[in-house]
Every structure is written in structure tokens, then in C-alpha cells.
Amino acid sequence: YALNGYDYNVIDYLLKPIEYDRFLKAALKADHIIKSVKDKLIFGENMSKKDFLFIKTDGKLIRVKYDEILFIEGKRDYISITTTIDKLISLDTLSNMESLLPATTFIRIHKSFIIALDKINFIQGNRVCINSDYLPIGDTYKNTLLKATKN
User: Fold this and answer.
1) Nearest to residue 101, comparing CAs of 123, 79, 121?
2) Lowest mean pLDDT among 2-11, 21-30, 59-68
3) What range does the domain containing 73 cover?
4) What's the predicted TM-score (pTM) here?
């Protein structure tokens, strides 16, 4: 059946019994492809040249460059975006923000945190240090983070 999958452009093929890490890898791969296609549909082929997003805060839309974002913390229906310049609060969800950010640059490390990979100072145990902030790494996300830092 796996070989027939190529006729249908399948993203991945899982064999029983399915291990959680293998399932997570397939799900993340599918999510990345879906985000890529979605971005191309919404923003056109020039999406790769887009290096910013707009954040609604205090009744304004503020342009924030991706390379200024250190990390994002989810707090129920609000997010706190810590940048190299400022800290912004916006009425949004962490899941929605994750779908807007480039998957190659940003990674979820906890149910409440997304970080910029290139802003990591070090990883120690179950914490990531970015600037002077120590952020927790969730057990679910640890393997994905460690794999991303090896690339």
C-alpha cells in the first residue's frame, strides 16, 4: 500500500503499531506542508520575501519583523510578544500566531510558548534561555526542539 501512496501524493505513511514520536513527526510534516500551501494561496509566490507581520495592539496595527521576535507567550485568549525592542500584548491565540509564523524560523516548545530558533542562547535540562529569560520546554515538544537545533 505504501508504494500506491505515491500515486495519491500522500505526505507520509505510518505502520501499525504507531509510535507517538513517529506520529508526531508525520503530523508536523503535514502541518508544515499545509502552512506552506496556505501561505502561497493567501500571499502569492512572493511569500518568502515577506519578513514581517502585523500585530493588533492598543487599537493599532504594528508591523513587527520576524527577526525582532524573541518569543511569544500564550495566556488564554491573549498573547505576549517579546521582541528585541518592546513587549506587545494582543488579543489572539498562540495557535493562530503559530500558523502565521514561518515554520523554519519559529518552533513551539511548550503549550504556552513559541520561540525564534536563532535567538536561543542555550538549552539546559527542560529550559531554554533567550536573553535573560528562561522558558520551559514541554515534554511533548522536547524531541522536536532538539532535532530542530541539530539542523
Assistant:
1) 79
2) 2-11
3) 51-151
4) 0.68
